[in-house]
Amino acid sequence: MKLLTKAIIQKFQKTGTQDIENPIVIAKFFNPVGIGTWFATEFNPITKVFFGRVDLHESEFGFFSLEELESVKLRFGLGIERDIHFEPIPINEV
Asked: What is the pTM of this model?
């Protein structure tokens, strides 16, 4: 699965930097066979680094890279996936 499409990159560009208390989540990525959800609120297309909330054993805000998500190899030949039905919503609603 392609984690980013041109349309999603355009949504990130339109939203820009979100230095606000309740930023809009543009994309959601998840581990289909275990824990791990990444809620991306910002994306730098040059460095290919996201900013957002990461829910693993704990929830925290921070940076994570597209390359890092794409490199994860899981059981059954799966990798990290993008929630194709996800619509942008404020972070306090996820």
From this structure: 0.94
